[in-house]
């Protein structure tokens, strides 16, 4: 397949080597408006706007992934394979499954378990364990420590279901899973297959344990620490 793709109208070279991917297109626009200089719209398809600009002199791109692994799977695949992107950093929200991971804390996904069938396409003779780029993870942890923010590194659950009829999401907590979100596993698998790098950084937006939660406006316009850590390591 050549560019433009069915989902991205940009030309080769329009994207930086590193792309930050929030789930929400409005969070992407917030990052552009508040952090990037000389930002240019490079993709307007389906309202999933992609931008490229500079942050402290570095070329950086920002584009939303949408919700869920099918959407993340499409965008990350096209960026890795057709736009010569080397690094994708997911910056999203997640629900805590652990008592010591509070709302607004930051979680780094060292790995990503999943209830999805996304890995079946690779026809592997067993179960694949999706993991982050150690290089990106190491840089992110260092940036978090420099900022003295409360963070945890560990395993995520990437779920295909937001409304889980079985109501068994908390079963994952006994295996030490930090939090639940909906995109990291697909991103990590696509990065592995493409020989590229990926990391998921999530701010805890709600707690499955306590029922505490942030508002949609807070998720769109706050979570600055996560955004700044991602920009620093881009």
From TrEMBL:
Site (Important for catalytic activity) location in chain: 219
Keyword Aminoacyl-tRNA synthetase tagged: no
Residues noted as binding a purine D-ribonucleoside in the record, renumbered to the chain: 7, 181-183, 205-206
InterPro entries linked to this entry: DeoD-type, Nucleoside_phosphorylase_d, Nucleoside_phosphorylase_sf
Active site, renumbered: 206
Positions of the Nucleoside phosphorylase domain: 18-228
Catalyzed reaction equations: uridine + phosphate = alpha-D-ribose 1-phosphate + uracil; a purine D-ribonucleoside + phosphate = a purine nucleobase + alpha-D-ribose 1-phosphate; a purine 2'-deoxy-D-ribonucleoside + phosphate = a purine nucleobase + 2-deoxy-alpha-D-ribose 1-phosphate
Pfam families noted in UniProt: PNP_UDP_1
EC id: 2.4.2.1
Molecular function per GO: purine-nucleoside phosphorylase activity; uridine phosphorylase activity
Family note: Belongs to the PNP/UDP phosphorylase family.
Self-association state and partner proteins as the record states: Homohexamer; trimer of homodimers.
The name this protein goes by in its record: Purine nucleoside phosphorylase DeoD-type
């Amino acid at each position: 397949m050549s560019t433009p793709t069915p989902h991205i109208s940009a030309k080769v070279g329009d994207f930086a080597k590193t792309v930050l991917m929030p789930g929400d297109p409005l969070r992407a626009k917030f990052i552009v408006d508040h952090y990037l200089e000389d930002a240019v719209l490079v993709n307007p398809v389906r309202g999933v706007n992609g931008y490229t600009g500079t942050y402290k002199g570095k070329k950086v791109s920002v584009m939303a992934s949408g919700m869920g692994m099918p959407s993340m799977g499409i965008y990350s695949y096209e960026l890795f394979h057709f736009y010569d992107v080397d690094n994708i950093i997911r910056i999203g929200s997640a629900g805590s499954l652990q008592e010591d991971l509070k709302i607004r804390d930051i979680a780094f996904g060292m790995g990503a378990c999943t209830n999805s069938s996304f890995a079946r396409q690779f026809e592997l003779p067993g179960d694949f364990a999706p993991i982050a780029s150690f290089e990106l993870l190491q840089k992110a942890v260092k940036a978090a420590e420099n900022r003295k923010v409360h963070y945890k590194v560990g395993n995520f659950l990437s779920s295909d279901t937001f409304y889980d009829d079985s109501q068994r999401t908390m079963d994952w907590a006994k295996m030490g899973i930090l939090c639940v979100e909906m995109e990291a596993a697909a991103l990590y698998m696509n990065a592995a297959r493409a020989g590229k790098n990926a990391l998921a950084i999530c701010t805890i937006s709600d707690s499955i344990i306590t029922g505490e939660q942030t508002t949609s406006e807070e998720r769109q316009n706050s979570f600055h620490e996560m955004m700044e850590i991602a920009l620093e390591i881009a």
